[in-house]
Write a structure and sequence with these properties.
Length: 205
């Protein structure tokens, strides 16, 4: 639930915990900033599902780059700057969408002709399933419904009786945990796992 009060001292304390990798501190900042950041993204992007996806990326980056956070400067400016940069990136990529689609189509055509690539995708899919199965039950259910079955946040909200904000929080944390699992496993190398993982996830968006 979004909390209304946030004092400088409490924020500084939580920022130090976040830098040390405390997931409860991450949840603390997500509860304070996810809604206002989402509203800002929606105002800039005008499309709900795009704003939701970028909101997830914002907080994934907050976690991944937590060591760069300066407790003396606070979180607000930091998280809004990440959001703004991602919006700019989105529009730049959108402008190159047709070219990127052609490049991806060409790359996929080449990959699908290679039997070894088929095996890699199969192994990566199995690892993805292993990563999903290790998620907490609620995160697992939400991730499968949204990312694998393609249901909207509103649909899942009605099915499970939880808010769309809670759903987005589950997706953020689930995606971070899955990404960590996939890229830390020794079954396949990072260089090979990355395109295969992104290919599998993208099919479910």
């Amino acid at each position: 639930m979004y909390q209304k009060t946030l004092t400088p001292d409490s924020e500084k304390f939580q920022l130090k915990r976040l830098r040390d990798g405390d997931e409860r501190a991450f949840d603390y900042f997500y509860s304070h900033y996810s809604l206002p950041v989402y509203r800002k993204l929606l105002k800039m992007l005008k499309v709900e599902f795009v704003a939701e996806e970028i909101l997830q990326t914002v907080f994934i980056k907050v976690w991944e780059k937590r060591d760069l956070i300066d407790p003396e400067k606070g979180m607000k400016g930091y998280v809004y700057q990440i959001a703004q940069n991602l919006v700019h990136d989105f529009y730049r990529k959108l402008a190159r969408e047709q070219e990127l689609q052609e490049q991806v189509r060409y790359a996929v055509d080449e990959v699908t002709e290679d039997a070894g690539a088929h095996l890699l995708l199969k192994e990566t899919n199995e690892l993805l399933e292993m990563a999903i199965e290790q998620l907490p039950e609620q995160q697992k259910i939400v991730f499968r419904l949204c990312k694998q079955e393609g249901k909207s946040y509103d649909e899942v909200s009605q099915m499970l009786g939880i808010s769309t904000s809670t759903i987005n929080g589950h997706i953020v944390r689930a995606t971070r945990k899955i990404k960590t699992f996939m890229f830390k496993t020794h079954h396949i190398s990072y260089g090979l796992a990355l395109p295969a993982f992104l290919h599998l996830i993208q099919k479910n968006l």
